[in-house]
Amino acid sequence: MKVDRELVRHLEILARLTLTEEEEMKMIKDMNDILAYVEKIGELDLHGVEPTYTVVEARTVLRKDEVRKGLAQKMALANVPAKKGNFIKVSSIQG
Amino acid sequence: MKIYEMTYSEIETSKDIRPDEVLDAFYNRITDVEDKVKAFISIYERRENPKTKPKIIAVKDNILVEGKKTTCASKILESFIAPYDATVVGKLKENGFYIVGKTNMDEFAMGSSTENSAFFPTHNPWSISRVPGGSSGGSAAAVAAGEVPLALGSDTGGSIRQPAAFCGVVGFKPTYGLISRYGLVAFGSSLDQIGGFARSVEDVAKLSNIIAGKEDLDSTSLNNSVEDFTRLLKRPIKGLKIAIPREFMSNALDKGIKDQIEKTIYKVEDEGAVVEEVSMKMMDYATAIYYIIAPAEASSNLSRYDGVRYGLSKSDPSLKHQYMKTRDAGFGPEVKRRIMIGTFTLSAGYYEAYFEKAQRARTKLIKEFNDVFSKYDYIVGPTTPTVAFKIGEKVENPLQMYLQDIYTIPANLAGIPAISVPIGIVDGLPVGLQIMGKRFKDAEVLNLAYAVEQMVNFDYTGGMKKLDEGLGDEDEK
Question: Is B420 annotated as catalytic?
């Protein structure tokens, strides 16, 4: 796999990042080095091996359906950068 | 012996120390050495004199303490105030622990030197021109410098054990699932584990007793026996079976460290343990597997930093541009690199070839562990390939930095308990021995660690002395 500027720019959009030209050049180099290293796993015979996403048994954990104390509204909103009353203010989703 | 040189257990059992003396000792020590070490991002004001002896502890700055800043050493969380306590912090408070402050780290726990902190690097007390390791470098350095007897860290690929080895302290990553991650800022959720630093194996076992336990707020936390981590500390090690993977003792390992490890292994054999060399071929693939899985999980976890609900916010009339501006300004280079790699390995067209394949390879690695653990109680080897390196030495080369964790990463991928115990000095710097055990055999891991600690008789105050005498700076000349 060869990482080029086109791929980096595509990934920037997916990751919601905008790198400077200089950052892009370094990113291309670093990603190529790192991917060349991790591609070592291609040497392994993984035929018929199941993936492990977590070492704990994958299961749905439910709790009792009862009211519990949670974060008070004031606390939950304490770190919000832009508020209007008790609402979070958000910029336009268009554009 | 000065109070700040004492272990947590020694302070607890000592009858002639007053509560205020304990508090004074550590606050004074912090005042004396913090300018050189820079272990803390925030230090809390000394509260009035306690009635009982305070159990002094520092907490890594990615674990929430209610009403206090939790920055993850990132500009994006620079002014974030935690609205609640992490479960482990709640447990510390319930048990009368006194948190003195929050320690420095690599931004979002991504790094092996604490140089990726957005604020400043931490210095190794044994040699202040060198890194303390990372990502929990602040916690390790604070314990080594005598600023605290105990500290909490988090370990995703070695972030407790590697800095423990570099700073000459004990660092323990318990079995994945034994300690709730609720209130630990997420990095790689299938790998992250909270654990402790101390200047004795006994202390780290006692600390684990306090913080362990299942709870609903972390659905991966497990019920399996909230056991007594101290229960096997003093068990004789005669007859225990230990495997040394050949792959851990290869040319990548510093010669001086190899000698120290071998010397320690002879002592372990003298005590009657059975030590044998094994081959674990998957160990050579662990770092490659990890650097697919961890960045993928990170890119997903870090998508929450959008400048809308908390943290840094760079406003823009367009929401999408607000996201971008906020993230551009808030994340440092290593975090951006991992987000980009993770975004790549999870993206359409590459998912099967990278992410999925790495998860299959992870299964194969776990199987190899299980095979070895069917014949042996422990897997032992070095914690790090080198001793602490110079500040600035590797920061420009991310891959070189990643290879610092070749011996520590496998335990995270398999979710097994692992500890680093200091065993000696090479070139004036500490060396750690890593002991890994079967899942849920944490008390067994601490058992061997304790036995090794008794054999090697490491001077945990060595870093403090070098710091006080200014000896740590000599290799700068």
Answer: no
